[in-house]
Amino acid sequence: DDFRKEVKPVVDAINDLREITDSVHLTFGRIKYFEWDFRQSKKHFQSALRLNSNNVRARFCYSELLLTLGHFPEALRELNTIIQLDPLSFQSYTSIGRAYYRMGKFENAVAFLNDVVDLEPHNFEALALLGATVAEMGDFDRANLMLSNSLKIQDHIETVSMLGYVAALRGDEKGARQIIDRINSTYVGNCE
């Protein structure tokens, strides 16, 4: 009993230090990611996870780096680990959908993204990605609906651009040009 009383503050201090240290690695990993130094970013994220394998934020950032690098199987493993740690991580389900989209596995992407939209109907990112995915599958009407719903929640240039892409895919040159004009008048002119 006395031993526990003496050791507990030491164990608590070590755990506090571990949390601080993994947070520092997470911060440096994010900084290096935004500096496009992916090698250093990866090292920091991996160090954070070695120190605290339950750090969901570090695991998510690491998975996003892996997606950026096109390391899809590894990214999917990380994202599935997050879901085990945090089953309500809509961000992880959306990223899994993005991974499958980028891999060209559109049916898998739709399955995950539909789940996100069913549970969180105002998730503009999932709606936009779902629109992009069903466009690739040739369902242009649903793509336009999903993209338009996403834009009602948050106006985003990538989503507007995807509307133009859908118009071009369906052979609607006039609609695609209207989107280009919209982008130029709404976004490009406001970049100064």
List keywords for this structure.
mainly alpha
Order of helices and strands: HHHHHHHHHH
Return the structural class: mainly alpha
> What number is the mean pLDDT?
87
- What is the CA-atom radius of gyration, in angstroms? 21 Å
Beta-strand share of residues: under 5%
Low-confidence stretches: none
How many separate helices? 10
Distance between the termini: 67 Å
Q: Any overview of this molecule?
A:
The protein is 82% helix and 0% strand. The chain has helices at residues 2-34, 38-51, 56-69, 72-85, 90-103, 106-119, 124-136, 140-153, 157-169, 173-186. The radius of gyration is 21 Å and the shape is elongated. The mean pLDDT is 87.
Question: What's this model, at a glance?
Answer:
With 192 residues, this protein is mainly α. It is built from 10 helices and no strands.
What's the topology here?
Elements: H1 2-34, H2 38-51, H3 56-69, H4 72-85, H5 90-103, H6 106-119, H7 124-136, H8 140-153, H9 157-169, H10 173-186
Helix pairs in contact: 1-2, 1-3, 2-3, 3-4, 3-5, 4-5, 5-6, 5-7, 6-7, 7-8, 7-9, 8-9, 9-10
